[in-house]
């Protein structure tokens, strides 16, 4: 009874660890600073500060003019920003959301990089451990055949065949050992950044793969995922595209006080200018302006002015944006489908290699001194472990894309433009 309970608890713990692989690595990634993260955080903080500082400045510009017989003081203010403050804040908010999208992508790449380092270390460690188990066997066999050949107890062809098998083993062993040492250095760097990596580096490839396939690898989930990608691209490239306002209003006021030095003829005047800029076929701008003036002598004047200038900007064509969205959708969906198909291919390959390994395991147990069988067994084991590692990486790659997409989708649902 106790044994059954222990087995059940072991399975539950393994499933829990496998289900939390992404979440655990995500938490670790959040504690590790990188240059790209610092750059995007500084960019976000700057844009948020700029948005918060979009305010109407009530303090007017002050000018003083001194002439030979008089002096003039005027107070003027450009009120155009009053009309555009809301639009200016909205455009800045778009830049902030775009930066948040970039932050999600940067975090995703860091999470994938951490998982890749852990995976490579674990994979090479497992393979090297098995090769180490047979190192003494091949080393002893090499000494034996060298001695037998020296004493002319075996023929040259037999000696050469055995020597080739041993050399192949040692070549494989050295390559695996060198690869492991390189991956261990990268793994040690990660541990120096966060000790928690030690606690999550012993998850089972098989359990994680099984968890992913049961949770995400369904046609319904893929269809929902693809739909979200398309909605996100439309939001990012169309909704968040900067808007150009061809009708630029002009509204300003000027209060002027003029007097002679003897203070016998003061003059107080007020001027209000209201205008607009109208685009004509995206080639010319027509700028009508009305000026209303009033002074302390109760003189009133009304002026109307027209100015035609070449257009300084073009409005964004919706057709171009639609084409951009279509291209982004195609590129991202091709990437997702390639990972999806790779998972299916690697899963089938792992099944075939598992059957081959099962056969070779039986042969090794039946012929424990046959170096050719042992070498074939080690190579099939290595191929299977590499295939499982590649499968686990592709599963994690797709899970990372899905998690990032969920974050972006939540972001667009929390922003209304």
Spell out the blueprint of helices and strands.
Elements lengths: L1 H18 L1 H11 L3 H18 L8 E6 L3 E9 L1 H54 L1 H16 L5 H38 L3 H4 L4 H11 L3 H21 L10 E11 L6 E9 L2 E3 L3 E3 L2 E7 L4 E6 L2 E3 L7 H49 L4 H43 L4
Question: What would your notes on this structure say?
Answer:
- A six-stranded antiparallel β-sheet has the order 1-2-3-4-7-8, with no helix packed on it. Strands 5-6-9 form a three-stranded antiparallel β-sheet, with no helix packed on it.
- The protein contains eleven helices and nine strands.
- The longest helix is centred in the N-terminal third of the chain and has 54 residues, at 80-133.
- The protein is α+β, with helices and mostly antiparallel strands and 417 residues long.
- Helix 9 (219-239) runs antiparallel to helix 10.
- The chain is elongated and about 130 Å long.
The biggest beta sheet reads: 6 strands, antiparallel
Average pLDDT value?
A: 85
Radius of gyration: 37 Å
- Strand fraction equals 5-15%
Strand arrangement, major sheet: 1-2-3-4-7-8
> What percent of residues adopt helix (DSSP H or I)?
55-70%
**What class do helices, strands and sheet pairing give?**
alpha+beta
What is the number of helices? 11
SSE topology string: HHHEEHHHHHHEEEEEEEHH
Distance between the termini: 61 Å
User: What is the molecular shape?
Assistant: elongated
Low-confidence stretches: 1-15
List keywords for this structure.
alpha+beta, six-stranded antiparallel beta sheet, three-stranded antiparallel beta sheet, disordered N terminus, 417 residues, single chain
